[in-house]
Inverse folding.
């Protein structure tokens, strides 16, 4: 009899675990479906409707504060990419930090299936940036996109001719 009772309790435990996982997944889905971007700080940082700042992972764009070459254009490029229709989702990278030293979330931004981080590099509005030389899931694609943008003089690679492609350093366009 104790074995049968143990088996019933074991089944109930697994049912409870499955229910918790299901409810948690449903909550995450609902939170993502209500996600709204309310402002664009610069070419690699956005602000959400709840006030959270999100730094786009593995890319760096020219800084507005330093009046860097192509800073305003990078901000406008991100605004244009974000303005497209599609579900907005933010994903972490299992190889990288989830929050930076300023408290911003570190995420890849997708609109539909389009990786906006990668698209910013592809159009020359940002460059790959591997903080602490740590490479994430899309590092190789980011490097290839930057090499192509530079070779084809797209975006900052045309406007800021002294810019170097150095993924382990912050972007410097001046």
């Amino acid at each position: 009899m104790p074995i049968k009772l143990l088996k019933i309790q074991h089944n109930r435990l697994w049912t409870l675990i499955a229910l918790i996982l299901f409810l948690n997944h449903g909550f995450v889905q609902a939170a993502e479906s209500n996600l709204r971007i309310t402002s664009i700080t610069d070419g690699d940082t956005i602000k959400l409707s709840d006030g959270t700042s999100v730094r786009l992972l593995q890319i760096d764009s020219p800084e507005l504060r330093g009046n860097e070459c192509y800073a305003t254009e990078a901000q406008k490029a991100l605004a244009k990419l974000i303005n497209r229709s599609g579900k907005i989702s933010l994903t972490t990278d299992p190889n990288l930090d989830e929050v930076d030293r300023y408290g911003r979330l570190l995420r890849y931004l997708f609109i539909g299936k389009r990786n906006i981080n990668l698209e910013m590099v592809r159009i020359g509005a940002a460059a790959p940036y591997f903080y602490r030389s740590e490479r994430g899931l899309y590092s190789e694609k980011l490097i290839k996109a930057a090499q192509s943008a530079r070779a084809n003089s797209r975006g900052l690679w045309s406007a800021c001719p002294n810019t170097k492609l150095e993924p382990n350093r912050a972007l410097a366009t001046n």
About this structure: Residues 47 and 53 are 4 Å apart (CA to CA).
